[in-house]
TrEMBL record:
Signal peptide limits: none
Biased amino acid composition, Low complexity: 113-127
Region spans: Disordered: 106-147
Superkingdom field: Bacteria
Keywords: DNA-binding
Annotated protein name in UniProt: Single-stranded DNA-binding protein
Source organism: Lacihabitans lacunae
GO MF annotations in UniProt: DNA binding
Oligomeric and partner information: Homotetramer.
Transmembrane intervals: none
Cited InterPro entries: NA-bd_OB-fold (IPR012340), Primosome_PriB/ssb (IPR000424), ssDNA-bd (IPR011344)
Length: 147
């Protein structure tokens, strides 16, 4: 039977990436991103529900994260869920979850567009092993349509 473990997230970094260099020279970047859902409750009040996701990037993606990502940046991550099982100091078995990213797209700053960091228009795409469909051309007005 086929299976699929794929996660697609767009969120904002909660802090600068933490970078580790392994004895092999490979880099690992870890950071949290927040995704927020906004809705109205039964009383008509706007409610925001924020989820935090632990992201882990390896190799070239970690290098890109180290060079370009900062707290507050918006980022698109594709990856898979990884589960870690451990026993706490009281002997209770616990689980933690992380996203092992295999593709990343920087979407720019959350609110400050005057920074020197890449934005959506000039940010390098960091994809590894994924095929991204071509982006369609933008049409400015309906007068130039061929039909």
């Amino acid at each position: 039977m086929a299976s699929l473990n794929k996660v697609l997230l767009i969120g904002n970094l909660g802090s600068d990436p933490e970078i580790r260099t392994l004895p092999s020279g490979d880099k690992v970047a870890q950071f949290n991103i927040a995704t927020t859902e906004s809705y109205k409750n039964k009383l008509g009040e706007r409610v925001e529900d924020t989820e935090w996701h632990r992201i882990e990037l390896w190799g070239g993606l970690a290098g890109v994260a180290e060079q370009y990502l900062k707290k507050g940046d918006s980022v698109y991550i594709e990856g898979r869920i990884r589960t870690d099982k451990y026993t706490d100091s009281n002997g209770v078995e616990k689980f933690s979850f992380r996203i092992r990213g295999n593709s990343m797209q920087m979407l720019g700053k959350r609110s400050d567009s005057s920074s020197a960091a890449p934005s959506a228009g000039n940010a390098p795409a960091a994809n590894k092993g994924t095929n991204n469909p071509p982006v369609p051309e933008q049409i400015s007005d309906g007068d130039d349509l061929p039909f």
